[in-house]
Amino acid sequence: MRLIFLPFLLLLSSTSLMAQHFPEWYRVYTFDESLIEMHTSLVTFISKDVARVRFRWTFDQPETLNGEPQLKYKSRLEVMEFNCLSQRYRPYHLTYFDSAGNIVHLEENQLGEWSTVTSGSMIQKLFAPACELIKQKTRSPVESADEVELAKAARYALSFSQHLEQAKDFKPIIEKFFMVNYLNGYLHDKNTNWFLNLNRETAARVSRGELQRFYVALMNTGYLGCLYAISQYPADSDEPVADERLVPPDVLQLIRNHAYTAAYKRQEGNYDFLAEKIDSIERLRSYTDLLEELGSLMRKHVIKAAAEHSKAYQAMLEDWHWTFDLYQPRVRVCARNCLGLPNGTKLFEVNVPVFRLQLAHIRGNLRIVSVVSSFQ
Question: Which tens digits make up the pLDDT trace of 10-66?
Fold first, then answer.
């Protein structure tokens, strides 16, 4: 069944943010029934090597404190001391709150013994973002021209992600963030087919309007399908998920009943035809229509499921932050095959949720010159 989404999920298919991009409470870990957030505005420096960072644990249901039924708490604030240089930590202060935010219990100045962070432990998941935050707070306020440039690229990539999450539609995003003639750049690149299963000859022959319509539909269906599929996985679990949870029934029904399926499906129960090369303008138009209808339907499912706010997606973001270095631009100078740009163009490569971007200065302004799935 997963082959249904091959052209739009698989084919299309976190170090941390800059300090100025952190929200006040930044989620660092998600459990099935609770989450942990780090306070990013306040770091207390105790000595040259020791600093205190605050974490808030929030639970879906009230928890019993110390086995006493009359004492229930909904969240707890834990202050911890970290020595990032020596890879050690210890607890300092713990406060429990009820669902209304009132203090239920307070444990002050309970300095524990220093412990060493072990690889793969739960504390390592807190230690890494805490030390990154401490590092950001101790950075010199004087930044070089290169650092300023990287920070601008990071902000631009973050803005792209925020606008895409809100719009759930690539069309206005392309108009706002992409290089004007990005399609020419895609067609100019002979090493990469940016249109996935659309063959180069057909892409070159079709009008720019139809090519953009196809590209928008492809990106929308891939992005929305990815959001929805991730949201259906249980957070913090490797258990397999049934295919029917990843593909809503009405989406499957739409594919079965579409004219594209009637024209190109070869075998009952086999959806490989959805990943076949698009080798004619007529086939491209039918395929684009299918993608647009699927994108519209998937958008409704994503909104209904609040997919980008699901625990599974938030857990995936946490993993991406450390795996893909989200919003941490890397610079390279393009020697040749530069998407139609002059050889020697400086490109900023940035990973964002679901995608990997390439940015460049176009007439003095940053613009996106390419987007590819993180899963490719």
Answer: 344 322 333 334 568 888 888 888 999 999 888 989 888 999 999 999 999 999 888
Residue 14's Cβ-count burial label (10 Å; 0-12, 13-18, 19+) is buried
Q: Is the pTM of this model over 0.85?
A: no
**Residue 68 DSSP one-character state:** E
Task: Compute the distance between CA of residue 246 and CA of residue 248 in angstroms, rounded to an integer.
Answer: 6
Q: Are 93 and 78 in contact (CB under 8 A)?
A: yes
**Interatomic CA distance for residues 137 and 139, integer angstroms:** 6
Give per-residue pLDDT as tens, 230-271: 888 775 555 666 666 788 999 999 999 999 999 998 877 778
**Any idea what DSSP says for residue 47?**
S
Residue 113: give its domain's CATH number: 2.40.128.710
Residue with tokens 């079965």: 256
Domain of 318? 2-7+153-373
Which residue bears the tokens 């393009």?
Answer: 334
* Secondary structure class of 107 (helix, strand, coil): strand
350 and 216, same domain (yes or no): yes
CB-CB contact of 350 with 325 (8 Å): no
Kindly state whether residues 90 and 67 are assigned to the same domain: yes
Whether 28 and 53 have beta carbons less than 8 Å apart is answered as no
Q: How far is CA 34 from the centre of its chain?
A: 20
Tally of CA atoms within 13 A in the half-sphere of 234 that contains its CB? 10
Specify the number of domains making up the chain: 2
Q: What are phi and psi of 140, to 5 degrees?
A: -65, 140
List Cβ neighbours of 364 (8 Å cut-off, separation of 6 or more). Answer: none
Going by C-alpha positions, the residue among 71, 78, 76, 104 that lies closest to residue 92 is 78
Q: Does 164 share its domain with 120?
A: no
